[in-house]
Design goal:
Helix content: 25-40%
Mean pLDDT: 96
Number of helices: 9
Structural class: alpha/beta
Low-confidence stretches: none
Radius of gyration: 17 Å
Strand order of the largest sheet: 1-2-3-4-5-6-7-8
CATH topology: TIM Barrel
Order of helices and strands: EHEHEHEHEHEHEHEHH
Largest sheet: 8 strands, parallel
CATH superfamily: Metal-dependent hydrolases
Distance between the termini: 22 Å
CATH architecture: Alpha-Beta Barrel
Number of domains: 1
Oligomer: single chain
């Protein structure tokens, strides 16, 4: 029997899943994924994510928030709508929120404003936050230093940094989410050094599907689309890097997810 895994970050509202979502979910179940948290990236996708959750509360949960790419479209007048959504059963975290200075698809000031507004919602609702950071380490850690003590929990989603970044985030009390980035021995080299250093009670696993298809999958899928069924492969790579039995890794990361998201 496959170890029981929880995918804490799957973008199931993405258009690439529109035609075969039932099959995608079935493959994930067959691969040992016992629960999935669907990521919300703006108000519309957060609502769609919750609609999926409402259809299968036992297997799915969701987040609600505004990704930094869409921060320019965030207005604090939207907060009542988000708060109403965050109060619904099955919505388990605020986010995906944070800063992305790599692509700068929204002005940095707008990103910071939207990020802070969502952290305030997390404090008010006592929900954990699902965080995004890319090329914005300084501003991100400064903002999180102010809010981390008041949060019910926070996870650095799709963590790709090295030992130094890991230490900084862990010192703030963050959990770290590891994706298929760890399966790339080239661009994931720093992450591969950090993975063995993450305390077992602060680590979770995710696919970030449909993004970040593990580079070392064999055989390679005909499509570049990642999906939650590949979480088992990611878990195997992480376990090997940590010199840890795969069953033990699955058990600890799933226990962390259940506790963090109150699943």
């Amino acid at each position: 029997m496959s170890p029981e895994l929880i995918d804490i970050g799957a973008n199931l509202t993405h258009e690439s899943f529109a035609d075969d979502l039932d099959e995608v979910l079935a493959r994930a179940r067959a691969a040992g994924v016992v629960h999935q948290v669907i990521t919300g990236a703006d108000l519309s996708s957060s609502r769609r994510a919750h609609e999926l959750v409402a259809g299968d509360r036992a297997y799915l949960s969701s987040t609600a928030g505004v990704h930094p790419h869409y921060a320019a479209g965030f207005d604090r007048a939207m907060q009542p709508e988000f708060l109403e959504l965050l109060a619904r059963p099955g919505v388990v975290a605020v986010g995906e929120c944070g800063l992305d200075y790599h692509r700068d698809l929204s002005p940095r000031a707008a990103q910071r404003s939207a990020f802070i507004a969502q952290l305030e919602m997390a404090v008010a609702t006592r929900l954990p936050v699902f965080l995004h950071q890319r090329d914005a380490h300084g501003d991100f850690t400064a903002i999180m230093s102010d809010y981390a003590p008041r949060l019910a929990g926070a996870i650095a989603h799709c963590f790709t940094g090295g030992p130094g970044d890991a230490e900084a985030y862990l010192s703030l009390g963050l959990f770290l989410g590891v994706t298929g980035w760890v399966c790339d021995e080239r661009r994931g080299s720093e992450l591969r050094q950090a993975v063995p250093l993450i305390p077992a009670d602060r680590l979770m696993l995710e696919t970030d599907a449909p993004y970040l298809l593990p580079r070392n999958l064999v055989p390679k899928p005909s499509s570049r689309r990642n999906e939650p069924a590949h979480l088992a492969h990611i878990a195997g790579v992480v376990a090997d890097l940590r010199a840890e039995p795969r069953d033990l890794l699955a058990s600890s990361t799933s226990a962390n997810a259940r506790r963090f998201f109150r699943l």
